[in-house]
Amino acid sequence: MDEEIRAAQKKIDKESGAIERLRAEVGKVIVGQTDMVDKIIIGLLANGHLLIEGVPGLAKTLTVSTFAQALSLPFNRIQFTPDMLPADLVGTMVYNQKTGEFQVKKGPLFSAVILADEINRAPAKTQSALLEAMQERQVTIGDKSYGLDSAFIVIATQNPIEQHGTYPLPEAQVDRFMMKLRLDYPSKEEEVGILRVHGSGSSPRVSPVVARGDLERAKKTLHAIYMDEKVERYIVDLVAASRDPEGYELADIKDLIAFGASPRASLFLKAGAKANAFLHGRGYVIPDDVRDIGYEVLRHRLILTYEAQAEDITPEDVIGKILSGVEVP
How far is CA 261 from CA 233, 256, 258, 301, in A? Predict the structure, then answer.
C-alpha cells in the first residue's frame, strides 16, 4: 500500500504543475469564485459534466470560456432557446445537389468544451439530444454514430430565479451531470477586485497554458491515487443512506426523500474524491475528499417528497443530515 501511495505521489508531483498553471491563468480573469474554479477542475480531471446554477452576472459563461482558452481546447457556446431543435445541436443530413447524395453536417456538439448556456430554456425534446453525447460521448446522425472529442465535457448553466419560458430538465439528464454547482454573490472585497480587473475598459488576456497531452496525463494520474476500502464503503454508505435512512438511524428524514441517489452518484463520488485529492497534492483519498464534493454530487440526485417541499426543506438540508449522521471511517 505504501509503495502504491508513493508511486501515485510521484505522478501527482509531476503532473500537478499543469493544473497549477491552469488555476493561475483562470485566476487572472475570474476574481473570487475559487470553489467554482476548483470544482470545474475536478470535473475536467474526472471526465464529469457540470451544471452551474446562479443568478445572471456571476461570471458563469466567462469562467467556462476562460477555461477553454487556457486549455487550448476547441470551444462552442450554445445558447439554448425555446425554438431550438435537436438537429441544431447534433447536426443533420443535408442533400448535396452536385453529388446527388446526402452528406452529414455536424452540429456544435462536435467540440471539446461545450457551454450549454441557459439549458433550461430549451424544451425536453432538445435537451434529450444531449443524453447520448453526455453518456456515450458519441452522436448518432441518420443511421451512423460519430465519436466526440476525447476531452468532451458539457458545462451547462441555468438561472434559478426566472421560470417564465423555461423547462425543467428531465431527471435522466440531470443524473448525467457529475456535479451541480450553486453560485452565490461575491464578497465586498471580491467585488472590489472585479471592478479593478474588469472595470478599467480592458480585460486580461488568457493564454493557452495547458496542452491537451498535459490534461490527459493528469486524468490518467487519478487511476493511480489510492483509495482505501473503508473510504469506498463510506461512499456507498452515504448513497445508501439517501435510499434507506432508517438503516442509518436517520428516521427523521425518511419522509422527506421520495427517491435517493443512483449508483452513478457512488461512481462520481469516488472519481471526484480522487480528483480532490489530486488538487491537494495527495496520492491517497481521505473521507474529507468525499465530504468536500458531497453536496455538489448529491443535491440534484435527491428527489424530495411534497411534504419536504411544503416545509421548505431543501436537498442541502437533507444532505447535511446524511453527512452528519453516517459514521466517518
Answer: 15, 14, 10, 5
Which structural domains are found in the chain, ordered by start? 16-218 (3.40.50.300), 225-325 (1.10.8.80)
Region of 190 (left: φ > 0; alpha: ψ -120 to 50; beta: rest) is alpha
In 3D, which of 85, 296, 277 has the Cα closest to residue 177? 296
d(CA 43, CA 278): 12
Tell me how far apart the alpha carbons of residues 191 and 268 are, in angstroms, rounded to a whole number: 33
- Which pTM does this prediction carry? 0.88
Separation of alpha carbons 149 and 145, rounded Å = 13
Residue 138 C-beta-side C-alpha neighbours within 13 Å: 8
Residue of 119, 116, 123 lying closest to 64 (CA atoms): 116
pLDDT at residue 234 is higher than 90: yes
Q: How far is CA 258 from CA 120, 127, 208, 310, in A?
A: 23, 24, 46, 14
User: How far out from the chain centre does Cα 213 lie?
Assistant: 21
Ramachandran sector of residue 110 (left: φ over 0; alpha: ψ -120 to 50; beta: rest): beta
- Structural contact between residues 63 and 40, judged by C-beta atoms closer than 8 angstroms: yes
User: What's the CA gap between 313 and 306, in Å, rounded?
Assistant: 10
Question: Long-range CB contacts (< 8 A, 24+ apart) of 170-175?
Answer: 170/124, 170/127, 170/128, 171/303, 172/128, 172/131, 173/127, 173/128, 173/130, 173/131, 173/134, 174/51, 174/300, 174/301, 175/262, 175/264, 175/300, 175/301
Q: How confident is the model at residue 87 (pLDDT cuts 50, 70, 90)?
A: confident
Q: How many residues does the chain have?
A: 329
Cell, residue 64: 467556462
